[in-house]
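Table 4 source record.
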Amino acid sequence: MSEPLRWVEIDHGALAHNVRALRQLLDGAQLWAVVKAQAYGHGPGGTARAVLAAGAAGLIVAVVDEAVELRTAGVKGPILVLTPPLPDQALAYDTFDLIGTVADYETARVLAAAGERRGRPIPVHLKVDTGMGRLGVLPGDAVALATAVHGLAGVELAGVFTHMAAADEEDLSSARAQLERFNAVLAALERHGLRPPMAHAANSAGAIVLPESRYSLARVGIALYGIAPSSFVAARAKALGLELRPALAFRARVVAARRLPAGWPISYGSTYATRTETTVATLPVGYADGLSRSLSHKMHVLVHGQKRPIVGRICMNHCMVDAGDLPVRPGDVVTLLGADGGETITAEDWAQALGTIPYEIVCMVGSRNPRRHLLGTAAAAAS
């Protein structure tokens, strides 16, 4: 079978390093790995197994279908599903041994019915909306809902949590206000004898910059993959001695390398013309593969360890690189994300050029290309 023309590499050594470094930072709180959205583009099955082996205590996904995919792939360990299920999804929590999220009584009742059918309760975590405005029971209604859930034989209230909207901002007043509301809920649950054994609020940013948000565990997502949630968090991580290693690289093989004269137009719209005689390399990567058309004229790649610009408009399946006088031939490997020699192109570089966040970059690249999981120095079969 021929080698792929483009692929992403997932470095399991980097994943393991990040888990160990973050667990040390958490100082006793558990690390639960967020592997939603195809593990942020890194591939759910291989990533889940790697982080569990490195010491993650559990896994977290956004929707039940993601949890089912992990179980079908043979992944063990606790899995918390963050989105409360619809009624037709409740049986999956029994079949696949999942932890549910509840934010209203009807969801709890449906999960309880599934738990009663299997003869043992389904564990659930109560989601409290302290200021994200997305999902959750309002703080003033949390005790009443916890009381109702506690009265259902088919579910076990195992945890309570909230999600911080701005823990990655330099101004942490909003995040701290959310924690105050959450602490008030925890105190009220305690007074009523309803506080469950697990409480959590920290995402990656909170885990790094707000130690008081860690409680029982931290839900670590983007930092697990070696990317800081923001420049502010990156600076705090550096000050703490926390080294994160990016786990994803994006590479492609040159499919054409041609010597073109000065003034030769490149790509659709002829928005670029060569300034001198130069070698133009064509890569089999375009916006269909996660290389956004909006990166046209804004991005460099690494050719033999040297930064060279993408020129002309990015096409659906191709882009062109001005390789200058470098000795480029078809089949040579070019790096679009990651390191080559002493140079590195990061997800943050892409994000800055696009006016977005690095989360979006790894998701859109990693989910659209074949994956190679690097186990030590060897590549496992593509996933």
